[in-house]
Amino acid sequence: MKKLQVTLASTFMVMALMACNQDNNDNNNAPEQEADLGTEQGQGADNTEDLNNADIQVDMATAVSEFENAYPNASISSIELEAERGTWQYEIQGLDDEKEYEIIVDANTQEVTNEREEALDANDAGGVERQEDALDMDNIIDPQEAVDIALSEAEGAISSWKLEKDNQVTYYEVTVTNAGNDYDIRLDATNGDVLGTDRDD
Q1: Which of 145, 129, 151, 130 is CA-nearest to residue 192?
Q2: Exposure of 193 by Cβ count < 10 A (0-12 exposed, 13-18 middle, 19+ buried)?
Q3: How does DSSP assign the chain, residue by residue?
Q4: In what order do the strands lie in the sheet with 75-84?
Q5: Average pLDDT over residues 171-186
Q6: 188 to each of 78, 165, 169, how far by Cα in Å?
Q7: What are 137-175's pLDDT values in tens digits?
Q8: Nearest CA-CA partner of 147 in 135, 137, 139, 158
Q9: Burial group, residue 140, by CB count within 10 angstroms (0-12, 13-18, 19+)
Q10: Which residue, 24, 54, 103, 178, is most buried by CB atoms nearer than 10 A?
Q11: Alpha-carbon span 136 to 78, nearest angstrom
C-alpha cells in the first residue's frame, strides 16, 4: 500500500512538472509569435501623410490673403501644401524688387509662423527675378482639380502639391506616393494639361 502511494505521488509530481514546462514553453513562444505578426504587418506599410484623408480647414485663397496682408507690395512666387510632422501647412514665398519673403500658414488653424525676409542678390534685384518668377494667379484651376487629374495619372497618397512658374508657364506639381515611389506630376495650372511626370525611387 505504501509502495502504491509513493508511485502515485511520483506520477503526480512528474505530470505536474510536465504541465509547468508546457506553460513555460507556451509563454516563451508567445512573444516571438506576436513579434513575428508585428513585423509582417509592418512590412510594406506606407506612413505617408495623405492629403486625400486630411481635413483641411484653410483653402489656398485664405492662405494667400495671409501672405498679402503681411507683404502687400510683394508678388507670390510659389505656394506649397505639405505635411510637416503630421501638420498640413502652406509654405508661401514671394518677392518684391529688393527682397524675397516666406510665411508658413497652418492649414487647419490659419496660424501664421516663420515669417522670413531676405535681400535679393544684385543680379535678381530691381525687378529682374520678380518678372521671371511672379505667379499669374488669374484663371488657374483649383488645387483639388489638379490633385484629381494627378490621381488619374498615378494612384497613391497625395503627399504634397506645389504651384510654381517656369519659362512663363504657371504649373502645379503634385506628388503621388505609392509603394515607396514618388511620382511628381506637372500640370498646366490654367487648363490642367499634363506637362510631364518624374518618378523618384
Answers
A1: 145
A2: exposed
A3: -HHHHHHHHHHHHHHHHHHHHHHHHHHHHHHHHHHHHHHHHHTT------GGG----S-HHHHHHHHHHH-TTPEEEEEEEEEETTEEEEEEEEE-SSEEEEEEEETTT--EEEEEEEEPPTTTTTTHHHHHH----TTPPPHHHHHHHHHHHS-SEEEEEEEEEETTEEEEEEEEEETTEEEEEEEETTT--EEEEEEE-
A4: 112-119, 99-106, 87-95, 75-84, 157-166, 169-178, 181-188, 194-200
A5: 94
A6: 14, 10, 7
A7: 888 999 999 999 999 999 999 999 999 999 999 999 999
A8: 158
A9: buried
A10: 103
A11: 11
pLDDT, greater one: 3 or 194: 194
How many other C-beta atoms can be found within 10 angstroms of the C-beta atom of residue 40?
Answer: 9
CA distance 193 to 195: 6
Q: Is 94 exposed, middle or buried (0-12, 13-18, 19+ CB in 10 A)?
A: buried
Q: Which three cell numbers stand for residue 60?
A: 489656398
For 198, the grid coordinates are: 518624374
Closest to 178 measured CA to CA, from 153, 196, 149: 153
Cβ-Cβ contacts under 8 Å for 117 (sequence gap 6 or more):
71, 99, 100, 101, 102
